[in-house]
Amino acid sequence: MSHQAMTSKPQPAPARSFHHGNLRQALIDAALCAPDIERLSLRQLASGLGVTAAAAYRHFANREDLLFEVARIGFALLEQRFAGAFDPSVPPSDAAEARQRLIRLGQAYLQFADDMPALWRLMFGSQAEAYRDSENLRGVPKSYEFLLVALMGLRQKGVITAEPNEQNALFAWSAIHGAAALRSGRVPDALMPVPDLALVIGDRIILALR
């Protein structure tokens, strides 16, 4: 080994730097990756990114400001999942497709909760009402409107006889969301594969609404 190799010291890693406008996105990305988003602080995120708390506060007025933005992103991501389940502007082609739309919607929701548990808990946790109200002010469609459309499709194709209403949607939503919560709590009966669980829940909802 050469004298130079023996005496040289490891060089410190270069400090993480952010170009103008990048820190805001870096804070959001770090929050989205956190295992417990609801308990994050801006100081904690800033420290993890190697910047001062003052730098973080230039982009978000406070912790709640950051969490509202993260929740907004979460609802947008969930809506993308729902849009992948079916196009709400196109009616189902037949009864089988109407049934499948409800099942795919349930699968999309359950998979979202599995894939992004911390974000899901934030979106539907103690501040859920405030986050939803914020989205309504932005004019963003409510995520559960997909559920109402799916139920209307079942009625249109004769799968269910009653005209769907808010109470029906609440019942269906409770079944799907409750299953996601049970999976989050590792309740054994809810830990079957997502497609199988979505099928069971979808068929139970249809049976109850006939």
Structural account:
With 210 residues, the chain is mainly alpha-helical.
How are the SSEs placed, and which strands pair?
Elements: H1 3-7, H2 22-33, H3 42-49, H4 53-57, H5 63-85, H6 95-115, H7 117-123, H8 128-137, H9 145-156, H10 166-184, H11 194-209
Helix pairs in contact: 2-3, 2-5, 5-6, 5-7, 6-7, 6-9, 6-10, 6-11, 10-11
Compressed to H and E, one letter per element, the order equals: HHHHHHHHHHH
Distance between the termini: 81 Å
Could you describe the largest sheet, including whether it forms a barrel? none
Shape estimate: elongated
Number of helices, counting only DSSP H or I runs of 4 residues or more: 11
Roughly what is the average pLDDT, rounded to an integer? 86
Query: Beta-strand percentage?
Result: under 5%
What is shown here, in short?
By secondary structure, this protein is mostly helical. The protein has eleven helices and no strands.
What are the main properties of this structure?
disordered N terminus, 66% helix, elongated, 0% strand, 210 residues
